[in-house]
Amino acid sequence: MSGGSYYVPATSRWPVLCSLALGVMMIGLGIKLVYDTGLHLAFIGVIGIVAVMWLWFRDVVIESQGGLYDAQMDRSFRWGMGWFVFSEVMFFAAFFGALFYVRMFAIPWLGGEGSKGVAALLWPDFVAHWPLINPPDSSISGPQQVFSPWQLPLVNTLILITSSITLTIAHEALKEGYRKACRNWLTGTVLLGVCFIIIQGVEYYEAYAHYGITLEAGIFGATFFILTGFHGVHVIVGTLILATILVRIQKGHFAHENHFGFEASCWYWHFVDVVWVGLFIFVYVL
């Protein structure tokens, strides 16, 4: 574009449609949690989100390849992505905060510790311990046992750490102009993301079928699935984004000096990996 110009995108319907699809998904999940039905509605929402993502990405790619973006747009994209990642940090901080509050305050109080230890009068026989296998209320059944962190969780941790390494190598290869190497390392990253999703699915099956870890299994089951479930959704989204970037690489998109679409996907993926390290430490190990 000519100097001093600024591209203003046309009015887009995708943000509204994405919000509606997200709302349908969350309503379906809410109905599922409360009434044990409505899962089909959640799936419709998920399909809608994926469809909107695909069409939205298509429009952005067309604009980018058409030479409509300049340095000012690049700065706008960077600020936008930075604030988006920050919002994701706050999103997970809320759930980690809930986990820490339960472990460091609520459970000790119910066990008779601290200034609010009078809460122990509610369930005098309760023994404060984490993970909470035996909830204080006998009407709630806790999990039969918890996962060993040194099996599937460790494998998934190594997979995500490795994926960050392969993605960094792919990014450096692109900056140096080695497109074939970039494509190969990025392919490896996408495959590692798929492996993580599959292993997480196996873990969830084991949790429900053999460990008694469900959303109804007291505070441990609730925090486990909320934290790992939302992270799993982020891994799925990140894998789809990286797969889209891989297709663009194969089509010859991105220049070695100008490729923020690739860089933004790296920011997102590395953030997801850091969140998992926190999950591995505070949900599985400690």
Automatic annotation (TrEMBL):
The record, for InterPro entries, names: Cyt_c/ubiquinol_Oxase_su3, Cyt_c_oxase_su3_dom, Cyt_c_oxidase-like_su3, Cyt_c_oxidase_su3-like_sf, Cyt_c_oxidase_su3_a-hlx
**Gene3D superfamilies under this entry?**
1.10.287.70, Cytochrome c oxidase, subunit III, four-helix bundle
Transmembrane portions of the chain = 12-31, 38-57, 77-102, 153-173, 185-205, 217-247, 267-285
Give the enzyme's EC designation: 7.1.1.9
Q: According to Swiss-Prot or TrEMBL, what is its membrane topology?
A: Multi-pass membrane protein
Please state the protein's primary subcellular location.
membrane
Do you know which PROSITE patterns this protein is assigned to? COX3
Per UniProt, the keywords (alphabetical) are: Membrane, Translocase, Transmembrane, Transmembrane helix
Spell out the subcellular localization from the entry. Cell membrane; Membrane
Q: Quick check: keyword Transmembrane helix in the entry?
A: yes
Heme-copper oxidase subunit III family profile domain location, by residue? 2-286
Q: In this record, what's one Pfam family?
A: COX3
Q: Which family does it belong to?
A: Belongs to the cytochrome c oxidase subunit 3 family.
From the Swiss-Prot or TrEMBL record, give the protein name: cytochrome-c oxidase
Species whose genome carries this gene: Halomonas llamarensis
